[in-house]
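3.2 Worked example (two chains)
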Amino acid sequence: MISCQNVMRHELIGLDVLVAGAANPFHNQVSGRIIDETRNLVAIQTQAGIKKIPKRGSIFRLSLPDNTLVEIHGSALILAPEKRLKRA
């Protein structure tokens, strides 16, 4: 089960997210559901459409299935998702 302690070892796709901080001011406060993840980007389905947010320079506030909020610096996520799952 995904928790605050092991979130880095789990798939992020499907989680609700809020961009709590970003280098690009247009990305601040973007919220929605993560629909895809690459090495450097997180794709978020918002009400206005899909937004691709760079991991570097961003802070993501994830809502876990048990409604716990976890804040993660995007630079900690910069790795291909499949490699991050194996490494963490």
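3.2.1 Second chain
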Amino acid sequence: MTKRNTSTLLAQLGNRTDPRTGAVNPPIHLSTAYEHPGLGRSTGFDYARTKNPTRALLEEGFAELEEGDAAFACSSGMAAIGLVLSLFRPGDGILAPEDLYGGTYRLFEHYRRQYGIPVDYLPFDDPSEVERSITAGTKALFIESPTNPLLQEIDLEIYGKIAKKHGLLLIVDNTFYTPILQKPIVLGADIVVHSATKYLGGHNDVLAGLVVAKGEDLCGQLAAHHNAEGAVLSPFDSWLVIRGLKTLPLRMRQHEANAREIAERLRSEPSVKEVLYPGRGGMLSLRVRDPALVAPLLENLELIAFAESLGGVETFITYPSTQTHADIPQKERTRRGIDDSLLRLSVGIEDADDLIADLARAFELARQKIGNTAVPAT
């Protein structure tokens, strides 16, 4: 089969899969059961938890996109991480960055308490420090790159070599960059996870997760756990993710173009102390000069929505301290750099000038609300 470029692969995802009708858009197969032609014979589909035609289209296409051997569509991003964690046994250790999505931290802590799977957190800014922290019990490195919410890029290729040297799994959460900007398996990862709710679905209308893996044995283990646990993606939600993926390259270009422009403009905003943007992708974070600005700023935004989640066509702003990272104890959260001045912006595909005007207006009203104390003296 001819290898296609990414944009072509995604635009054509699921097409020409219904030769009986010639339907261009792939059909949604809602049936949970499939008739057997005879004893010991199967069409390849037996029961929807094990395999579904619509979900299979998504999984096969996404495995090809991430250049893995198999993909597993899950009922949420956290279900995807849960599927990966099902590979571990009591005593199996994981090393992870300190800057990590709060939901992942919460699940890691649950597995630590409930199943005896220890997770140790490191800055991951010094590969030699991470390598020194590997023990006989360490089984995996779990990395977000860029990290959430401080947007720190981690060199996956370096950590892929370290993982291989020590016989560890390298697991990468690729939600923020998507396969359009980064392919972790190509860089040495064994497993890639996504909250497909975010950029892959792209429209804030579907809850989904994806896991992609490389290697027959690893894929076989994940397939067995996926079927046994049953946290699979429904046919309709699988179709929604397929629909979203078709425009992913176009959307990522606009997300990134807008984010670059907004990051540059925010650096000159008098009430902003720091802008955290890795130079690519659609996510950025910022610190305001005075935490008192946060509430009136959020209340005065008209276009940008104060909401949890990210990666949709609409721009969202999030306050990690009380939303995405609230489950990390406050003292530890602050030590990790997630303080009360930090805001996270998921930049959508609206006109950048409109987004910039919305932020400028909200900042001005917020300054008026607190008496302009957040503007440094000149």
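3.3 Remarks
Residues 252 and 281 are 7 Å apart (CA to CA).
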